[in-house]
Amino acid sequence: MEAMLAIAVGVLTACGVFLILRARTFPVLLGLTLLSYAVNLFLFASGRLQVGAPPLIRAGAAYADPLPQALVLTAIVIGFGMTAYLAILALRSLAESGGDHVDAVSTEDARQ
């Protein structure tokens, strides 16, 4: 189980970095989202996955650590806000420059 989770985190990270290095804004946005997913999986796995463990602490019982779950929930909310902000920023850049290139070279500058 841990190997599969580590491979999933590695693949998400590699795909995210690959997309971030593209010259267009929307692949960069998707790359940041994939990196966010990879970090969420990493944080969740850092809490030592326990199947069938109760979320509440009883005397002498094994329990699931609630801190990584709270961190992942917070990271999901922050990641969604960041993705929404970057999507609006990319759309504004597209409207202003006429293209979705990261350098934001406008069509008027390209003609000269």
From TrEMBL:
Annotated membrane topology: Multi-pass membrane protein
Residues spanning the membrane: 6-21, 28-47, 67-91
Major subcellular site: membrane
Xref: Pfam families: Oxidored_q2 (PF00420)
Superkingdom, natural source: Bacteria
Species the sequence originates in: Candidatus Accumulibacter vicinus
UniProt GO cellular component terms: plasma membrane
The name this protein goes by in its record: Multiple resistance and pH homeostasis protein C
Keyword Transferase: no
Keywords: Cell membrane, Membrane, Transmembrane, Transmembrane helix
